[in-house]
Structures are given as structure tokens and as C-alpha cells.
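Contributing new records

If you add data, match the layout below exactly. Sequence lines come first and carry their own label; structure lines follow with theirs. Keep one chain per record. Anything else will be rejected by the validation script.
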Amino acid sequence: MLQVLKDSYIFFRINFLNIFKILLPILIFNFAFILILEFISVPDRLSNLIDFMEYFISLIFHSVYSAGLIFFFDGILKGEFVSVKESLLKGLKMAPLVLLTDCIVLLITGVGFLLLIIPGIILSAKLSLTTYCLLLSKDMPLEAIKNSYELTKGYTKSILGCLTIVGLPYIIIFTIIPSLFKNGFDSIFSSFVIGIISNLFSAFLIIILFRFYCLINEKKAIA
């Protein structure tokens, strides 16, 4: 587990600039759409609808971002040059399928959390390689979910450990930063800063899971 974290950190550090280049346009467009929604005057009864639209828009952009990063990382692993633009275009092309798959996974894990918290956490770890199966193994959504569940057998605790180690600092930072800013411009700036930090953490998590995906498939190939 610690070796996976170490390898992932080195990979993240080496490719930080390109990760940021992939993130920045996605974040700017996402933030622009959310700002437009924020300034739309709607009755109080529709405020929940606006909140849902903001969440859904963020989910769409995150699908492009995560898919683009995975294609970029896969290109590096194969020794192929994949530009930031090409990664984003590939991510954009696959975003609808990634979004559909993410929604199914969220629904499944959500049911797990409703039943009990522990099953939800375990399901989250077991389905964490779904996007990689979808994009790199070219599985269809339900097949990708099934294969992720199978691939993570024997690795669930390690995946949970890595996600916890990285996730706890994220939760702390996410909690502290908003309290440092006031309303108005500071609040907008705070949202943008949080967006950058959360997406960089997300990139690190994507690298960790990408490392697990590669290691597991390497062991399967040897076996």
C-alpha cells in the first residue's frame, strides 16, 4: 500500500504541470457555468433545482477531466505521446459514457450507504476501478462495474487504506478553507481555490487507482 502511494506521488509530481493544464480549462468552464446559475434569480421553491443543476454540471465536467487524465496516464505508461489537447478531446468524447457509468456506480454505492455505512464504503472501494475498465479495457458500463468488483478482490483493504490516507487531508482542507473567506468576492475566490485543490486531490486519487489497475492486471497476466 505504501509503495503504491509512493509511486503515485512520484508520478503526480513529475506530471503535475500537464495535470494542471488538463484541469485548468475544465475548471474555468465549470466555474463559469456555476457562476451563471448563481446569478440567475429564481423563486425559493426552485433553489433546490439550481443546486442540483450545479452538482450535475460539476459531474459532467469531472467526467471529462477524469477520462482525460486516464487517457493521458495510459499514454505515458505505453510510451506514447498524448498531448493535453488530445487527452481533453478523448475525455470529452467518452464523457457521456463515463457520466452514465458514474451515475450507476453512485446509485449502487448510495444503496449500500443507505443499508449501512460499512457496505457503502466497501462497495465504493470494490467499484473504484470501474472507469478504468470502461476506458482502458473498453468494457460496457455494467460489464465494467462487474469487472471492477472482480479485479479488486484481495485488494479492497489496500485501496480503502490509500483512499483514507489521501482523503482525510482533503476533508480537513475542504472544511478549513471556506472559513477563511467572507461573503462576496472572497467567497467566489474561495470556491475557485477549493475547486483547484479538490481537483488536484482527485487527480492524485485517479493516479493511485490507475496504479492499482495496472498492478492487478500485471499480476493477472503473469498468472
